[in-house]
Amino acid sequence: DIVLNTHLHSDHCGGNTRREGERLLLTFPRAESWVQGEEWEDALRPNERTQTTYLAENFVPVQEAGRFRFLEGDTSVTAEVRCMLTPGHTRAHQSIVIESGGQTAIYLADLSPWAVHLERLAWIPAYDLEPLVTLETKRSLREWAQRTNALLFFEHDPRIAAGYLRPADKEFVIEPLSLGSAQVGPDSALGKSK
Q1: Residues 6 or more apart from 85 whose CB is under 8 A from it?
Q2: For a 10 Å CB count at each end of the chain, is N or C smaller?
Q3: What pTM was estimated for this model as a whole?
Q4: Could you give the CA distance from residue 132 to residue 124 in angstroms, rounded to a whole number?
């Protein structure tokens, strides 16, 4: 019913459309796709730095079909799911928060692609468009994550897919999510392909 686009870079919204022969089709033709309005505007006007990741074929067909909903800031999706504006990677990047049964989780997308990016505030990927904004967003998010004990999901981390922020001396570390004694990740028994 709803597709939540954290931002419109090709590695995050490339699944919005699919090719069938020469035709470009919506992957979820009945779903409404949600994205921040400012992100849409930036995607339509890429610059030299963003033109290789804002690929119109991934999002223009969605708009042409009338299936986009443009958000302005934090937005509730359901009583348990909301979009949280987390700028820095892009001007209007958003993360997805899930709150249920007294527990909280957040899909960080590219705010913190790897766990180490949240452990060390100054570590900011070179592809972030507004690195100083990323720094402040991560600082605020770390405080929130510690206060809520949020489960953090890391989009691109090959070692830690999910974990919890824990204090360690004057810094923080991500404690990987584990199921029983098995750590979840590509190096774990659960993550190894057979």
Answers
A1: 36, 73, 74, 92, 93, 94
A2: C
A3: 0.88
A4: 9
